Structure formats: structure tokens, C-alpha cells
Amino acid sequence: MPSVSTMLERAVNGISRSGVLAIDAVRRTGAAAVFMARVLAASGTSIARPALTLREIYFSGALSLVIIMVSGLFVGMVLGMQGYDTLETYGSEEKLGVLVALSLVRELGPVVAALLFASRAGSAITAEIGLMKATDQLVAMEMMAVDPIARVVAPRFWGAVLSMPLLAALFSALGIFGAYLVGVRLLGVDDGAFWSQMQAAVDFRQDILNGVIKSVVFGIGIAAVATYEGFAAPPTAEGVSRATTRTVVHSSLLVLALDLVLTGFMMQIWG
Amino acid sequence: MSDAPLVEIRACNFGYNEARRILHDVALDVPRGKVVALMGGSGCGKTTLLRLIGGQERAQTGTVKVAGEDIAALDADGLYRMRRRMGMLFQGGALFTDMTVFDNIAFQMREHTDLPDDAIRDLVLLKLQAVGLRGAAALMPSELSGGMARRVALARAVALDPMLVMYDEPFAGLDPISLSVIGQLIRRSNDALGATSIVVTHDVRESLHIVDYVYLMAEGRIVAQGTPAEMRESTVPMVQQFVQGEIDGPVRFHYPADDFGHALGLDHA
Predict the structure, then answer these.
(1) Which partner from A169, B23, B108, B154 sits 20 to 30 angstroms from B164, CA to CA?
(2) Predicted ipTM?
(3) What is the dihedral of CA A34, A40, A42, A44, to 10 degrees?
(4) At CB < 8 Å, which residues of chain A contact B?
(5) What are the sequence ranges of the domains in chain A?
(6) pLDDT, tens only, A240-266
């Protein structure tokens, strides 16, 4: 059995380690905040030269279309089956359209699309910026008197921020279509009831606008994490690989945390 | 044109942290219009010196002046203004991997000038023609060989006809033909542009052919200097070891360690 002094030493080491982790977390958060301030201050180039931002919308948004649309369709189809199964018990299967639309527009659309976007586009942004750093491309740019934050980071940041709400909207639209295919075409829910009840129950401000607000906030969160991790990545293969993993993990957790907070606020305000 | 050296470094001390000093009291001049080599073994502080001249790092003590301006005293705008008059070739080329060769060369022209597309196209083709790669304008950097990538990086470094061009290990990892080509291009572009060049290298043979003056560095200090002829004839052991490529000498082959016999446990026998 370990002696008292050994146990005490282990306890102190444990506390010391958590202190180091806490200090590191605070330091990284501070560095990320300073970095974001620099990105915002250097965003003039992204506005003055929209071609730079459009190119990033293509890479982040357009190239994410397939995974977002296919996932939306499948999630909607599954939601249609599950919803029908439950609603049928109460004889309310014509409410399927309402159930699916509200689930997707309020929650699943923004959240699942954001999680997919973090994995597909967030990781790509981190890896690209990290590799540019590792191969001296960012330093080369600085030596050419071109600010890499304005030229490389800010367009990628705004490209991701602008892509996210569009992708979330597409996810929801394809999801509703998937539920329509399963519910109406396959399981026999009334076509008119499916759409008209959906139209009557979904409120623009309370449901659609809230969903858009969420997806914009998620987009900002993912873009901030992805660009910061890439820019701060140690310039080695291992450093870039770790930064890419951190982007997916941190931005996914951030999306879930932000969703909880935003939903709380929205229920308070609109509910 | 002033006769003062383009680059003046005086009593320069630098370290990335307090525990490990990289440069010790370095003093050197780079005269205008000349090609000057900074030679020395790996890790002797050559590249760090380039970073100080380019303003990527600031010396803890001493001064680094370029064209009469103290680099450490410049604000961000001043530094960027100065860098527009500098060109740099990085060891790995550092070409922008998401752009074609043409766009790499055109990058600075598009960022810093209002030249119309036609003029940029002509200038880029001129630069590429000078390094023999006009036919590779549409290729991506991943499609180039090491020697070609270095030539494109060289063309990019001189794209805006800078007053000072810095080359960081331009000969590293090249085959003998590419090595000779890069050496000649450095000399020719320096003379054609009326520029001043600093070549950081450990390739003695090639650089002694093309440079006007040599500074030899070891452990963060300038240990010898002179023209290529003076360096070849020098009797200073450090210079001899470097020029002749001798394995052991003032620069030791063995990293400091305790007695080998002791390490093998032979001193008890």
C-alpha cells in the first residue's frame, strides 16, 4: 500500500497537472480571441475583393453540398419513418409534415449540418492553413508585404460563415423532401395534409428565423475554430494532424454547447 | 547612389529564448550591387540572420540597417514598405500550392501594383523566360521537379525587381545541373537588376564561383571573411576545414559526450 507521502505527492501532481491544463486552456482562449480580432480587423480585403471570398465559398460550401444533401435526405427519410410509427399510434399521422419540418428547421438542420460542415470543411480549412504555414507559404507572403491574415485567413473565415446557413437550409429542405418520399409516397400519409399542416404550423420568425440565427452562429464558431487551429498549428506533420483533429472535436462540442445556450434564449424570448 | 553598404549589421545579438543565444556580436556589411555569401554549417545562425534582415525577428541588442533604415525601429507599415523592396527565396521554395506557376509570379504584381492584366502577363512571361520556364507557366507547383520549383521561386523572388534579394539555401537538395543553373541565375539576375544579393548556403564549391564576398559563420559568430580567392587560400583552420570539407577540425565530428571507454564500462578492466 502506498505511503501517505506518496499519496499526497500524487494528489499534488494531479492538482498541478489540472492547473497546467486550465492555464493552457485560458491561454489558448485568449490567443484565439486576439486572433479573431485580427481577422475581423483584416476583413476589408475579403469585402473589397469578393472573388477571394467566393472562391472559399466554393471550397467550403459548394464542395460540401453532396454530403449535406445526401445526409439531409437520409435523416429526413428516417425521421419520416420514426415519426409515422409514433404518430400512427395516436391516429395523427397527417401531422407528420409538422413534426418533420419543426424538428429539421429548429434543430436537426442547423445542428447536424454544422457537425457535418465541421468535419468536412472545418478540417479542410485547418489542414490547408496549417500546411501553408508548415511549408513557409505564410512567411513567404509576409516577406512579400502581404498580410496572410487578410489574404488567406479572412476569406476562408467569411467563406465558411456565409456557407453554413445556406447548407443548413438545404439540409432541412432535403430532409423534408425525404420525409415526404417516405411518409406520403411510401406510407400513404395524405399529400395535402402533409404540406398544408406544415405550412400552418411552421412560423417564420419563431422557427425559420431561429434556425437561420443558429446556423449563422454555428458557422462563426466553426470558422473561428478552424482558422485559428490552422494558423496556430505547430509547423510539423504531427502538429497539423493534431490541429485538424482538434478542429473537428472542438468545433463539434462548441456547436452542441452553443445550441443549448441559443435554444434556451430562444425559448425564453419567443416562447 | 549612396556608397554606404545596403545592409549594415552591428554588434547584433539574438536568441529565440534567453537560454540559447543564436547570434553573438555579429557585424557585417553587404555592399550595394554585390552578391555576398553567408556560409557555415547547419544551425550556425545563417538563416536567423536573414530573418533579422527581413524583419521577421528583432535583435535583442545591436542594429540591423537596410538602405540606412533601422529595421527594428520600423512599424508594421514601414516594415511592409521595406519588404516590397526585398525578395526572398525560401529553402523549400514556399511556392503557393493552390496557384499555378504563372499566378505565383504574378502574385506580388497583383497585390502591390495597379498594372493591367496584359502588362502583368508580359512581365510574368519575361521573368519565366529568364529562368527558362515560360513553357511551365500553366503547371501547378506539385507538377514541378525540385530544380524547376527552385527556379520558379527565384523568378518570384525577383518579380518586383527588388533592391535586395535574399536566398536561403538555394542549392540544397539539387542535382549538379540544377545547382549550376541556380548559381548562374542568381549571379545574372543580380547583375541585370542592379540588385544586391545575400546567399545563405553551405555549398562551398558552387557559391565560391558566383559570389563577390564571403562571411563564414560558426556557432553564431562571424569567424572569417574575404573574397572567394582569399577564402580558398586562407590558412585559418576553420576556413580550411569548411572549404576542404574535412570531417574533423575546429568543428568537431563528435557531439560532446563523456569518455567512450567509460561509457562502455572498459575503465574497470
Answers:
(1) B23
(2) 0.84
(3) -170
(4) 128, 131-132, 135-137, 139-147, 151
(5) 51-270
(6) 999 999 999 999 999 999 999 999 999
